[in-house]
Amino acid sequence: MKQKRIGFETQNRISGFLYFLPWLLGFIMFFLSPLVTTVWYSLNQVRVAAEGGTEFVFLGLGNYIDLFTSEVSANAQPFSRLFVDENILIFTQLPLITIFSLFLAILANAKYPGRGIVRVIFFLPIVFGLELVRSYGINSAGRSLIEAAAARYYENNPVIMLLWNYTFLPLRLIRFLSSAMEGIFTLFTRTGVQTMIFLAGLQSISPAHYEVAKIEGANAYTIFWRVTLPSISHVMMFVIIYTLIDLFMGSIFGNEIYQYAYSRGKIGMGSALSVVYILNVILALGVVWVFMRRAKIIDR
Question: Which of 84, 176, 207, 256 is deepest in the core (most CB within 10 A)?
Answer without folding.
Answer: 256
